[in-house]
Structure formats: C-alpha cells, structure tokens
C-alpha cells in the first residue's frame, strides 16, 4: 500500500477560536485526517510574537487542544500536540533563518500590517514566518490546509525548502497550500474590510466557535451591510453582504451567487445565515461540553501527540543539521 501523504497545520492560542478559523481551516483538518497522516499543533511559540499574559497563554493552549477534539479530530488518526513540546521546531527555525533573507521577510504583508499596530515590534514577529516554515518542513508535509491569509507564508516555506535543497542537497518536501474554495477569508461582521480574527477585539464582529445560537443570531442580525437593499454578490461594492453570502454558501455547500439568487431581502438572508451557522457549530458545542468532563483525557492526547510528532521531527532535524555541516553529538 502506498504511504499516506502527510498534512500539517497549526493554530495560535491567541484567543477564542472563531468561525473564520473553523471555515477557513479547522473543518478541513477534520476531513483530511481520513486519507492522510495528519499532524495538527497548537502553535504556542507563535503566540509569543504579541503581548500575552502567561496565565492566559497556558489557559488558551489547553482550551485550544480541547477545541481541536471538539471539532472532531480523532487522536488515533491525527497527532494533536503543542508546538513547544517538540523542541525541533525552534531548532530547525534557526537553520531556516540562516536560509531566509531580510528582504523576503520584510515583504510579508501580515508582518507589515501587524507591525503598524505596535509601537515596538518584537523580533519574533519578523521571523515568525520562518518558524512556521520549520513547523511545516519538519514533518515533510505535502499539504498544509490554511485560510487565505496564510497563502504568502506557505509560499515562503516552499521557497525556503527549494533554496535549502538546492544549497545542501535534497532534504525537505516542498509543501502545497490547501485553501478552501469558499470562506477562505471570513470577514469581521462589523468591519467587513478586515478579516475576522481571534486576537482583535470586536465583540459583535467575531463569532466564536462556542457561541450560543442566541449570540450568533444577535451578531448576524447586527452585521454591517449597506443601504441599497439589493441582494447580489459583489465583494467590492457590498463587502458586508458578500461576507454573509459567503458564510451561508460555506455552511450549505453552495456558491455565494446561488445563495444570492434565493433572497430578496437582507432580513430573510440574515435569519437563514444565523440558523445555518448555529446548526453547523452545534456538534462542536455539544462535544466540547462532553469533553469538559474529563480534562485528563486532553493531557494524554497531547502527550501521545507530542511523542508521535517528535519521532518524525527529530529525524528531519538530524537530516537538516547534517546537511548544513553541524557536527553530530557523540553517541
Ligand atoms: N477570518 C478567517 N477566515 C478564514 N480562515 C482564517 N484563519 C484565521 N482567520 C481566518 C485560518 O485559521 C488558521 C489558524 O489561524 P491563526 O491562529 O494563524 O490566526 P488567527 O485566528 O487570525 O489568529 P490571530 O492571533 O488573531 O492572528 P492574526 O493576528 O494574524 O489575525 C489559519 O489557517 C488561518 O489561515
């Protein structure tokens, strides 16, 4: 039997998981675990690129792991682990930092956007895309399921793998991004010009994975649209409405244009968006409530996941370190 191909993806424990995370990435992680050897991690080292309270980081990391089970990841099929539990991630990142250039990191749009929001910019924010490349390349991942905002970072990981292989000999698999056809970039319901994000404060603009049906209905009802009242899909002229159409399309497996054709009034559309999203997230809410009864299960999942991840990551790291000429430690 041909070996299964590997997939890897991660999520930062920087706040409550959002509907954007779910539609752009998480639900595809679940689908991919059927036919691939899957590695999914809570990228806690990435959360340190911004200011985060240490107690909140720990709590968010546990919460993220619980959510990964609640969305339907099966720890027997997917290795679920915490990035910092596998020390090869920052070790390989250093080798890749010595492969990347200042120029290409300066061109990362997410870095530029985030740097603008801060008075002082952490060096880790600048080099974070290289750590993300290490996350991917350590597992010889052929595919990386992510939302559209990560497209440029995956391109960088590919570029670094190709450059490293060219310079030091065949070492890494060159990964491909898997970006979903619908809802690859879910926008904030109050600010449809920016993406829905777990670390940006927008209580009415962000739907959380565990929001109650009432909360979802309230947020969708108050979502910003426009005043011309015509239901049609136009991302430039009607970004708020387009976002709602995208959401309903993703939740009901249709195209946004098909969805637009079925409505004449914003109010009817909003009612159906709220109902479809509540239904979509209902199994996640229910499983999460069950899992909360047994916190030791998560510890065990993370320990087993880290052991599986470490076995793969350490072999890749040794290969890469040998390729650049680092002297192996005496046995
Ligand atoms: N709005 C979104 N629409 C579609 N996909 C999204 N993703 C994130 N936001 C959206 C995808 O979810 C995965 C994990 O995301 P992340 O932890 O890297 O980023 P985040 O949720 O955006 O968290 P932050 O901390 O709030 O980050 P910033 O500050 O960057 O906005 C990824 O696959 C991502 O594409």
Description:
The chain has 331 residues and is mainly alpha-helical. It has 13 helices and 5 strands. It has helices at 19-32, 44-47, 54-70, 88-97, 102-106, 109-116, 123-137, 151-168, 213-221, 239-252, 256-261, 266-291, 295-324; strands spanning 6-11, 37-42, 78-82, 143-145, 176-178. The strands form 2 sheets. Strands 1-2-3 form a 3-stranded parallel beta sheet. It has a two-stranded parallel sheet with strand order 4-5. Helix 1 links the parallel strand 1 (6-11) and strand 2 (37-42). The chain is globular and about 70 Å long. The model has no long low-confidence stretch (mean pLDDT 96). It binds adenosine-5'-tetraphosphate (AQP). Adenosine-5'-tetraphosphate binds at residues 11-12, 14, 18, 20-21, 23-25, 110, 146-147, 149-150, 184-186, 195-199.
Describe the structure in brief.
It contains 13 helices and five strands. It has 331 residues and is mainly α.
What gross morphology would you assign?
A: globular
Largest sheet: 3 strands, parallel
Helix/strand order: EHEHHEHHHHEHEHHHHH
Structural class: mainly alpha
User: What's the gyration radius in Å?
Assistant: 21 Å
Helical proportion, percent range: 40-55%
């Amino acid at each position: 039997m041909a070996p299964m191909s590997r997939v890897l993806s991660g999520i930062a424990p920087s706040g409550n998981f959002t509907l954007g995370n779910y539609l752009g990435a998480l639900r595809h992680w679940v689908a991919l675990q059927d036919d691939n050897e899957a590695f999914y991690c809570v990228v806690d080292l990435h959360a340190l690129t911004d200011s985060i309270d240490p107690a909140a980081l720990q709590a968010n990391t546990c919460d993220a792991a619980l959510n990964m089970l609640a969305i339907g990841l099966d720890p027997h099929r997917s290795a679920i682990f915490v990035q910092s539990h596998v020390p090869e991630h920052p070790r390989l990142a250093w080798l890749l930092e010595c492969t990347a250039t200042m120029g290409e990191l300066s061109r990362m749009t997410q870095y530029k956007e985030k740097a603008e929001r801060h008075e002082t910019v952490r060096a880790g924010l600048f080099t974070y895309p290289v750590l993300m490349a290490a996350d991917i390349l350590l597992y010889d991942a052929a595919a990386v399921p992510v939302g559209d905002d990560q497209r440029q970072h995956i391109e960088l990981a590919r570029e670094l793998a190709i450059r490293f292989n060219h310079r030091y000999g065949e070492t890494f698999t060159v990964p491909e991004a898997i970006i979903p056809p619908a809802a690859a970039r879910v926008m904030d319901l109050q600010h449809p010009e920016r993406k829905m994000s777990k670390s940006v404060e927008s209580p009415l603009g962000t739907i959380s994975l565990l929001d109650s049906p009432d909360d979802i209905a309230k947020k969708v009802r108050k979502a910003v649209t426009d005043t011309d009242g015509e239901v049609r899909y136009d991302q430039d002229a009607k970004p708020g409405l387009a976002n709602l159409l995208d959401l309903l399309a993703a939740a009901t497996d249709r195209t946004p244009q098909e969805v637009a054709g079925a409505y004449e009034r914003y109010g009817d559309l909003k009612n159906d968006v709220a109902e479809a999203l509540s239904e979509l997230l209902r199994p996640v809410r229910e499983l999460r409530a069950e899992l909360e009864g047994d916190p030791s299960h998560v510890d065990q999942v993370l320990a087993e996941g880290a052991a599986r991840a470490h076995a793969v990551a350490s072999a890749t790291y040794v290969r890469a370190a040998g390729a650049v000429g680092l002297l192996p430690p005496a046995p």
